[in-house]
Automatic annotation (TrEMBL):
Domain Methyltransferase per the UniProt entry, residue ranges: 54-144
Signal peptide boundaries: none
InterPro entries: Methyltransf_25, SAM-dependent_MTases_sf
The keyword Cytoplasm is assigned to this record: no
Alphabetic keyword roster: Methyltransferase, Transferase
GO BP annotations listed: methylation
Gene Ontology molecular function: any one: methyltransferase activity
Protein known as: Class I SAM-dependent methyltransferase
Length: 214
């Protein structure tokens, strides 16, 4: 992932996968279950057919977001790069599909009614976020919905978790809009630092249906 070995942001970006594996138990213990995200999860699910399939990209330990989808009647396929977090999911929800994989190499050979990348995709550096939009499109049925969180503007941001540096990256809003459009998505809703959702910046988009008359 890193472009230079002496760049703190690049080094932190390289460390994300390992950090979540090392800190999996702490992350699961501290991850809030209050579902402050519910307003956006409901907006997402309102666009998914009843019983429609959901791909949760960066599913973590399955709590609370995957659990909410499951309880709402949607089969979930979860993908995460941490073996320990996937193990939590498999123990909690054995009837769902949980895959240990890196989203940057996502190639499941199937499409879903909805894809969500909540607080996960934004751990990739900008250069690695750009090709993800074609992968999103490859895994969503025409008319299906995509929701992801990002930063409010282009750049890197360094936080901390478990005593380790945690990387976040973002493109500019204009570039996200362009990439979505180039890959067949229409932006349905975009809110910057939503005060009703913990200050998250959220994108909700739909993959355009193929017009056979074109």
């Amino acid at each position: 992932m890193a472009e230079t070995e002496d760049d703190p942001a690049a080094n932190a970006a390289d460390n994300v996968v390992g950090l979540y594996e090392r800190q999996a138990e702490l992350w699961d213990r501290l991850r809030g279950r209050s579902l402050f995200e519910r307003i956006w999860l409901d907006r997402f699910l309102a666009l998914v057919p009843k019983g429609g399939s959901v791909l949760d990209l960066g599913c973590g330990s399955g709590e609370p977001i995957a659990r909410y989808f499951i309880e709402c009647g949607h089969p979930v396929t979860g993908v995460d790069s941490s073996e320990s977090l996937i193990a939590f999911c498999r123990r909690r929800f054995p009837d769902q599909e949980w895959l240990l994989a890196d989203m940057r190499q996502l190639d499941l050979g199937m499409r879903f009614d909805g894809l969500v990348a909540w607080d996960s995709f934004f751990h990739l550096p900008p250069a690695e976020q750009r090709p993800m939009f074609s992968r999103f499109a490859q895994h969503i049925r025409p008319g299906g919905v995509l929701m992801f969180t990002s930063g409010p503007h282009h750049g890197d941001a360094l936080g901390a978790f478990g005593g380790e540096t945690l990387y976040h990256g973002s493109l500019a809003p204009e570039e996200y809009k362009a990439l979505l459009g180039e890959n067949g998505f229409d932006v349905l809703r975009h809110t910057v630092e939503d005060p009703d959702c913990g200050g998250h910046t959220i994108w909700l988009a739909a993959l355009r249906r193929v017009n056979c008359g074109d």
